[in-house]
Design a protein that fits this description.
The chain is of the alpha+beta class. It is 39% helix and 20% strand. The protein has helices at 3-25, 30-34, 52-58, 60-72, 141-151, and strands at 86-90, 93-101, 110-116, 121-127, 134-136.
Length: 153
């Protein structure tokens, strides 16, 4: 076997071994974000919270609530940068929060969402094109307070 063939074989074996890991990382359940470690100085900024797109891929209940709520409020899904989802206290419940923005237009086109895996309730705040932010999903007072804080208002 030539050196080139050995190198190709090693590359193929490595790819085969890593494929399950990358597929696993690309999907998650919303409940995984309830117990995840948020990146911080204490853990060397190595958190294990899933990203919004991972939860959309791996959790049908969350995906349904997300798409239904955004569509009902005419909020675009946006396909730009997103942060990891993480637990957040809302009133006396733990929700998960996530954010996403429009590619190349994050400053003036973004949203923050909160979701309760227990009640399957999703609400958010959306800022379209730099105008005043708007609520979606009819957040109650506790949810509005949490969303304001997460949104940076």
């Amino acid at each position: 076997m030539t050196r080139q063939h050995r190198l190709g074989l090693c590359t193929l074996i490595t790819a085969a071994l890593l494929a399950p890991l990358s597929a696993q990382a690309a999907s998650a359940k919303a409940t995984q974000a309830l117990n995840c470690q948020v990146p911080s100085a204490a853990n060397g900024y190595r958190g294990n919270c899933p990203y919004l797109s991972d939860v959309l891929k791996g959790d049908k209940t969350f995906r349904t609530a997300f798409k239904k709520t955004l569509r009902a409020n005419q909020v675009p899904e946006l396909a730009g940068p997103e942060g990891p989802m993480s637990p957040v206290n809302v009133g006396n419940q733990v929700y998960i929060s996530g954010n996403r923005c429009e590619a190349h237009n994050c400053g003036s086109h973004n949203y923050v969402i909160i979701y309760s895996p227990t009640t399957q309730r999703l609400a958010g705040i959306y800022q379209p094109d730099g105008s005043n932010p708007m609520w979606f999903g009819q957040p109650n007072g506790d949810e509005q307070a949490a969303l304001r804080q997460l949104f940076g208002q």
